[in-house]
Amino acid sequence: MTVAIVTHPALAAHDTGDHPERAARWERTDARLAALGLPRIEPAPIAADALARVHPVAHGERIKAFCEGGGGRLDDDTVACPASYDVALLSAGAAIAAVDRVATGQDRTAVALCRPPGHHALADQTMGFCFFNNAALAARHAQQAYGLQRVVILDWDLHHGNGTEAIFYDDPSVLYLSTHQHPNWPGSGAPADVGTGLGTGFNVNVQLPIGTGDAGYLHTMQEVFAPVVAAFKPELIIISAGYDAHWRDPLGRMGLTVAGFAALTREAQGWADRLCGGKLVALMEGGYDLEALAASMLATVQVLAGVEVADLLGPSPYHEPKAEVERAIRRTLQAIKPYWPN
Ligand SMILES: [Zn+2]
After folding, report:
1. Which of the residues 55, 119, 120, 141 is marked catalytic?
2. Which end of the chain has less neighbouring CB within 10 Å, N or C?
3. Is 37 exposed, middle or buried (0-12, 13-18, 19+ CB in 10 A)?
4. To 10 degrees, the CA torsion angle through 161, 289, 78, 31?
């Protein structure tokens, strides 16, 4: 099975010093993926018209001017250097290129090493290390450049993708599915937040308790998400692939392992194979333990490529709170019951 790796050395030029979202994340992950010998695609910066599908022109101009002024803190959490605007355009361009590879049939799946990440970025606001919402831009590109009607965004990052949720909250053409540690920043992502207007029912949040591990995550995917995805009949699946729910991550307290990320990838790939000719794109989001990030993203690519995954980082030290996980799953199933068969 062909997997394209969309990556570019300039993605390391967004210099954030010792911030958790630092250049070494890209360097370590890219080096691990390079060893697989898969086709490597260099993206171009996102075009202005593609960016404008999600972000008002003023949003980009504000970031551009800030970076030209030397950079600093764009908001409480997001750091920019003079090069960051251009790198953010390239990161979004990587998401676009990944969609192009899959939508044109050049590759069955594509994995993009997006950096900076995207899922907290609102249409008109940077947030949580994110400048432009790469997954939202990818979904809109798939719809507007290739005429796709229905796109799934599966967000398994540790954090809730508040930006992605907000962008598609009233939109039934993009089904947003998120698992996130609760409680944690940014605090959004309640099960009752199911969308609004025509988009009601097309936003599915699962707040998982601290310590949720491989079994709980996979159970959530199979019990909550899989039936909804099957009923929705997507033409493309985009994964907001964060790896900060790995047990080693310094920003989280979840218990996923490398083998767990492999299992989640296998599940999503199964949906894509059954429902949309295998069309799947994975975009890097969070993940702040360098080794866990690189090993887990490698596992994602290995699953997509159909090669064996070796879990080098061992089992989680957390004990999964099984009853609490079940309660979290029931809460979401209850919230979405009016809109989806189960
Ligand atoms: Zn995250």
Report:
1. 120
2. C
3. exposed
4. -100
Which strand ranges, in their side-by-side order, compose the sheet holding 236-241? 40-41, 3-6, 109-112, 280-284, 236-241, 151-155, 174-181, 203-208
Q: Which two tokens stand for residue 340?
A: 């989806």
Inside any domain, residue 117? yes
Peptide bond into 56 cis (omega under 30): no
Tokens 């764009």 belong to which residue?
74
Over the chain (342 residues), what is each successive 10-residue block's mean pLDDT?
Answer: 93 97 98 95 98 98 98 97 98 99 98 98 98 99 98 98 99 99 98 98 98 98 98 98 98 98 98 98 98 98 96 94 98 97 68
Give the total number of structural domains in the chain: 1
Task: Give catalytic status of residue 120 as yes or no.
Answer: yes
Residue in 101, 120, 117 with CA at minimum distance from that of residue 109? 101
Residue 329 lies in a domain: yes
1, 306 contact by CB (below 8 A): yes
| pLDDT tens-digit map of 226-269 | 999 999 999 999 999 999 999 999 999 999 999 999 999 999 99
Measure 19 CA to ligand 1 centroid, in angstroms.
14
Q: What share of the chain is helix, strand, coil (3-state, %, to 5)?
A: 40, 15, 45
Residue 316 lies in a domain: yes
Instruction: In whole angstroms, give the CA distance from residue 119 to residue 106.
Output: 26
Per the structure, the complete domain to which residue 41 belongs is given by 3-336
Q: Which residues surround ligand 1, an ion (CB under 5 A)?
A: 157-159, 242, 244, 286
CATH code (residue 220): 3.40.800.20
- Contact yes or no for 228/336 (Cβ under 8 A): yes
Q: Concatenated DSSP letters for 159-173?
A: S--HHHHHHTTT-TT
Strands 203-208 and 236-241: unpaired
Quote the ligand 1 centre to 158 CA distance (angstroms). Answer: 5
Going from the Cα of 160 to the center of ligand 1, the distance in angstroms, rounded, reads 7
Residue 342 resides in a domain: no
CA of residue 185 to ligand 1 center, whole Å: 9
Any idea which residue has 């989280």 for tokens?
Answer: 252
